[in-house]
Amino acid sequence: MNVVAIVLDIEGTTSSIDFVHKVLFPYAARELPPFVRQRHQQTRIHALLADVCREAAEPSADIERLVQILAQWMKEDRKATSLKTLQGMIWEKGYRDGDFRGHVYADAARKMREWAAQGIALYIYSSGSVQAQKLLFGYSDAGDLRPLIRGYFDTRIGPKREVASYRLIAETLQLAAQKILFLSDVAEELDAAAGAGMQTVQLVRDDSVARGRHALASDFDAIPVSLDAS
To answer: Among 95, 163, 199, 220, which is 20 to 30 Å from 226 by CA?
Structure first.
């Protein structure tokens, strides 16, 4: 397939779902309560907590109640931008302290380097915050991959299962949707991208992945991509 840009999902696509759910999420669950209690008066944290109050419809929630709300949202894996931003701030400390490194599949790192060298523009679209995305790829076990990536999208562009989100990505990149390839392991996300006119490939790295109607690939090496020079 000929493209000028590739938009990459993270969980189950470039990176192991286990890394997110067994390393990052437990770390954030443990560190978030003291983080909020100690820093809630800082301007940026205060603004994010105000967002939590609004989304939870609890304008008078105190710090302990906010901690409870955020803990519940984490259990639900709620795609709230305020939560994802707070998680990203906590993970930054973990990465910088060397508590863990971002997992990226070897085939993903290899092909990302190859595609970037060909002149194909690479972008990330994840429900995790842009900050969290940059940390994962910047402190990855495959080295600093950020120089390969031209931009990042998170839930501020819209939900990953809505066609409008992918249309807005194409508009933001100023590219025709059909010249963009979206890679994900989630069929519903791929359905939305295809609905916007993008090319799609579903990553099926194990038998737990529910297949959709899209082209399938077991890893990045199985995806035939070349730069559209037209």
So the answer is: 163
Band (pLDDT 50/70/90 cuts) for residue 88 is confident
How many Cβ atoms from other residues are within 10 Å of residue 218's Cβ?
12
Q: Minimal CA–CA distance to 197: which of 222, 168, 220?
A: 168
Q: Which residues contact 159 (CB under 8 A, 6 or more apart)?
A: 79, 165
Strands 149-153 and 199-203: unpaired
Tell me how far apart the alpha carbons of residues 181 and 166 are, in angstroms, rounded to a whole number.
11
Residues 26-83 pLDDT 10s = 999 999 999 999 999 999 999 999 999 999 999 999 999 999 999 999 999 888 889 9
Please enumerate in sequence order all residues whose Cβ is within 8 A of that of 81, keeping only pairs 6 or more positions apart, or say none. Answer: 51, 129, 154, 155, 156
Residue 200, number of CB atoms within 10 A of its CB: 25
pTM here is 0.85
Query: Cα–chain-centroid distance for residue 74?
Result: 16
Q: Please tell me the number of Cα atoms within 13 Å of 1 on its side-chain side.
A: 18
* CA-wise closest residue to 200 among 208, 211, 135: 211
Which amino acid is present at 83? L
User: Please, which residues bridge with residue 200 across strands?
Assistant: 182
Element (H, E) at 125: strand 121-125
| Contacts of 221 by beta carbon, 8 Å cutoff, 6+ apart | 107, 110, 111
